[in-house]
Amino acid sequence: MLAFESLDILSAIPKDLIGVFFILNLCACLGIFVSKRWTSGATARPSSPDPEKPAVGLRGKVTRPPGEWTPSSFQRPTAAPYTDWNVHSTKPLPYRPFRYGPKYFVTLGLRSMNWDEWIARQPLPKVPCRQSTSHRRTRQQMLPHITRSNGRRTRTSKRAVSTDRPHNAIQFNTLRCTYLPERYPSMFEKTPTGISNKVTSETFDITQRPLPEDPMAIAARLVQDDLAIMIERPDGEYYLLGGAVLLAGFWRLTDKFGMRLSEIHTSGDVPQYKSKLEKGMMNFFRRLRPEDPVLRNNYFIQVDDNLSWSHSIGPEDADEVSWGTAEKNRAIENHFFRSERQSLRRLPKSGAVIFTIRTYFEPITEVVKELYVPGRLASAIRSWGDDVSRYKGKEKYQEVLLEYLDSKHREQIEGGLEIEKEDEVRSYPF
């Protein structure tokens, strides 16, 4: 009825004024449209999706008592063979997990994981050692870290292999000995007692009792990832009770072993952990299901070329280490992009939460050759707040690094790079 009344009023208006009203109304609509487009363009650069998304892997209310777990019958889907993977020639995935500013979001940054992706699709080492895209570690260099570390780099608590629940560390190895031959049949073969590495001719027996060495040391020989086992206790907290940490760069297993999840982060001064991360992280760990694995990525700038330990923050055996000891504004050749790809999953039988942490380490001078990367990385670094900047040591490298990134970004723009097309060629976290 109101619509008809409006038409009656409209019919009473002179025809010449109707045209004027129509033009004014059209201009107003266009103004609003342009204003919205201009505002969104100024605040949302390409490739900057809002990271504030509902957490994955959280379904339903958890009713079990803290520290207790009823074994699940879940079995991981069989992994599809990575048929074109080659131990010598397959290139690592170029993870670039940074977003345009002006705002830096402090979030868990979780996303769902395809089961085929549990162990990163990278070239596994020709010898059983750790490596990055720019650093090759020989067997002779790395094996002593595993076999003679005396708990510094690999360690498993009695609770992680206790008899009151399925063996967490041993179950972890069993699952990996099933997954690796499925996913990488050109390198691994399942055996009646464990797994065989076709490239190195090594065989791993995971059925022997007692095991000849720490089960986490065995796990460390199979892949390049650092590993961690988090176990829930009756207080509802998760504790780091098993680990193989060879390439952490900025933290030490001996410092964190036995700590609660929250203490691990607060002792490392993780920015805004209490205000932005703790509640969500505790809920996530509590409610994570065996069938819902997740991934996350992070990144750092390092001002020395040591993959396993960043000696610029102090000696690895020092009582305290910090960015305060790092040399300021070193030449750009000493700047490296360090990134981690972390997977999290819950073991179905024991309920432990397992981390795998794959480290990538590349010279900044190589990373900037990729289209869009210099400008986006510079914008991301400028978006860090004071707390994040302190945590990541920005003061020690910002002048040299940002000047270099800006110059490389200008070169790409002058070479014809079309910023608005970035989303057509890449998506987070690449």
Put the structure in a nutshell.
InterPro entries: HODM_asu-like (IPR021848). Pfam families: HODM_asu-like. 33% of the residues lie in helices and 14% in strands.
What does it look like?
The chain has 430 residues and is an alpha+beta fold. A 7-stranded antiparallel sheet has the order 1-8-9-10-6-7-2. The chain has a 3-stranded antiparallel sheet with strand order 3-4-5, with helices on one face. It has one domain (55-425). Helices cover 33% and strands 14% of the residues. The chain is globular. It is built from 13 helices and 10 strands. α10 (373-383) packs antiparallel against α12 (398-414). β3 (188-191) and β4 form a beta hairpin.
Q: What is the number of beta strands?
A: 10
Alpha carbon gap, first and last residue: 56 Å
Structural class: alpha+beta
**Fraction of residues in helix:** 25-40%
Taking all Cα atoms into account, the compactness measure Rg is: 26 Å
Q: Could you say which overall geometry the principal axes of the C-alpha atoms support? A: globular
Order of SSEs: HHEHEHEEEHEEHHHEEEHHHHH
Overall structural domain count:
1
The largest sheet is: 7 strands, antiparallel
Strand fraction band?
5-15%
Mean pLDDT: 82
Strand order of the largest sheet: 1-8-9-10-6-7-2
| Regions with little confidence, pLDDT below 50 for 5+ residues | 1-15, 17-44, 46-55, 124-140
Pfam family, one: HODM_asu-like
InterPro entries: HODM_asu-like
Region (Disordered): 41-75
